[in-house]
Amino acid sequence: MNMFSEAYEAYARSLVAETPVLVQGNVLAGTDGVRINVKECYPLDQIVASLVKKVTWLLHPDHPELVAFLRAVRSTVDASHGDTRLAFAFVFDGRIAPFADASAGLGWKLVPAHFQQLRAHPAVAGTLVETKRLQLKETRRWSKR
After folding, report:
1. CA 25 to CA 3: how far, in whole Å?
2. Distance between CA atoms of 87 and 55, rounded to whole angstroms?
């Protein structure tokens, strides 16, 4: 990855050792390989809540801890209401049953640590995460005239 002076000046505060970041830029493929010219860089923990539109929880229907998981989700959502939608689906014999969207009143402010904690629950077979489309900010230098 390359981060030129203009981007570094704007986003250097986001570059902290051992801290994940979201990088946006231009992907360039050349004879020397593929590289990214970084245009924007954000701490992942701070931006993820604004990017995730929907989380679908894929669940083991016969797991003895399923009810405990659903209670944990409800408790988490009640503690951090937001715009991320929730849906649920069961996995039967490696196949996913139809999805059921949760009520719009159960929007969640996704916090990465809480997501990881719920994701690690044994009743969870997986997740589908739908995000907003990422777009680079226009700069004066490259804007249309």
Report:
1. 9
2. 6
- Residue 117 Cα to chain centre, angstroms: 14
User: What amino acid is encoded at 59 in this protein?
Assistant: L
36 has which bridge partners?
Answer: 27
DSSP structure string for 18-85: T--EEEEEEEEEETTEEEEEEEEEEEHHHHHHHHEEEEEEEE-TT-TTHHHHHHHHHHHHHHSEEEEE
Query: pLDDT (tens digit, 9 = 90+) per residue, 87-128?
Result: 999 998 878 788 899 998 888 988 888 999 999 999 999 999
For 3-48, the pLDDT digits (tens) are 999 999 999 998 998 888 888 888 989 888 899 999 989 888 888 8
- DSSP string covering 123-141, please? TEEEEEEEEPPP-PPP-TT
| The amino acid at 10 | A
| Residue 107 half-sphere exposure toward CB, CA atoms < 13 A | 11
**Which backbone phi and psi does 42 adopt, to 5 degrees?**
-130, 145
